[in-house]
Amino acid sequence: MKINEVSKLTGLPISTLRFYERKNLIPDTFVKRDANNYRMYSEEIVDFLDDVKVLLSVDFSIEELSLLVNQQLNLSYEAKTKMVEQKIKEIEEIQKRLKKSKTFLNAVLEGKANFQTKC
């Protein structure tokens, strides 16, 4: 499929798809060139890009994702695992802060705290 079809199916602008390619975020296995040198994407690119959107939403950077998917870098499984484990720790810290914030806000609603006191 052509880039405009991928854009429609994923909701990503064409400029974003090209940016991802420049950043080596889209592996060559998903993109080929036709006789006219147009990019032709495999059907699997849609699921891959959905995964990319999820990973970006949990604060993986473009550079981190590029390291994870770029086979030419030969990043070891252990190195990739460490990156993912670190991101999980970061998410857990965010969850703790959010839980604390939620507890405080609930206390405010219940009249047990105000914005000058801490729970």
Helix content: 55-70%
What's the alpha carbon Rg, rounded to whole Å? 20 Å
Which strand order spans the largest sheet, edge to edge or round the barrel? 1-2
Order of helices and strands: HHEEHHH
**Structural class of the secondary structure composition?**
mainly alpha
Report strand %.
Answer: 5-15%
Mind summarizing the main beta sheet? 2 strands, antiparallel
Number of strands: 2
Kindly report the average pLDDT value: 90
Which stretches are poorly predicted, pLDDT < 50 over at least 5 residues? none
Termini separation comes to 55 Å
Query: Quick one: CATH class of the largest domain?
Result: Mainly Alpha
Brief summary:
This protein has helices at residues 3-10, 14-22, 45-57, 62-69, 77-109, and strands at residues 31-33, 39-41. The chain is mainly α and 119 residues long.
Structure, described:
The chain is mainly α and 119 residues long. The chain folds into two domains: 1-73, Multidrug-efflux Transporter Regulator, Chain: A, Domain 2 (Orthogonal Bundle), CATH 1.10.1660; 76-119, no CATH class. It is 60% helix and 5% strand. The chain contains five helices and two strands. It has helices at 3-10, 14-22, 45-57, 62-69, 77-109; strands at 31-33, 39-41. The protein has a two-stranded antiparallel sheet. A hairpin with a 5-residue loop joins β1 and β2.
